[in-house]
Give the backbone structure.
Amino acid sequence: MYRHHPQWQWARQIVEEGRIGPLRTIHSFFSFHDDQPESILNHREWGGGGLMDIGCYSLSLSRFLFQSQPERVLGVLREDPQFGVDCLTSGILQFAAGTSTFTCSTQLASYQRVHLYGTNGRVELETPFNPPTDRPARAWLEIDESLEEIRFDPCDQYGIQADLFSRAILDDTSVPTPLEDAVANMVVLEAIVRSGQRQAWVTIH
């Protein structure tokens, strides 16, 4: 859903147009605190853990912006001793054109941010994953030491996603984010887990 929000359409256009120069590295952070035993996040058998719930977005946005799969990844996962799910995960994704680093956690103070760095400038998104629906979302574009704040009107990114999916059905066209993209994202996610278990880089085949 996040890809359909105007702020991400704008960010990708900035990158594609080369306004910050070639994209070289991305850093993303996403966290909140949920240590309740009844939470789905804290049940391994239900697919719990921070990487599956919110870390997947960091992997997805990196692939979205570099428009490719990473060549190899390195992951560090910390498991909650009571629940047996990852509660703090950090990783490095190495792409042909650059790198992406991320941290996600379900047991930290709530915070989120994404930074994109090119050779000539940078982009910062304040609420990249679940922007507010009652006030504008904000981003910053800095090029050659000139900083500009951009505001995006409030919208429902889930509603936009649903409308685009419905339109694809009605028009018999490809869906905006095909199943193959989800599978490719899971390949990277599973490689992060294997890397954490092996304490070594894992190559993406």
